[in-house]
Amino acid sequence: MTSFNYTIKNINNIHARPLSDLAKIAKDSKCNVIISDSKKNKKDVKKIIGIMQLNLKIGDEVIVSIEGYDEILENKAKENIYNFFKTNF
Asked: How many folded domains does the chain comprise?
């Protein structure tokens, strides 16, 4: 399992359209991808409604955990998801 921390920087917070794109990246990764907020709430990144329930705002820190059946797959998923976060959130 691999993970990364990320602080939300988007002043417009998080909306459904980029979450839909994020869910697609997570599904395509063939890994389990979980996002956790500072209150230890955990949601499956493949499910948009769950992420929206976290009600993330600018300045909130999240932990994204990625678990796949091999390290190469996990690292590729981590790279894709992290780059998506940097670009959109």
From this structure: 1
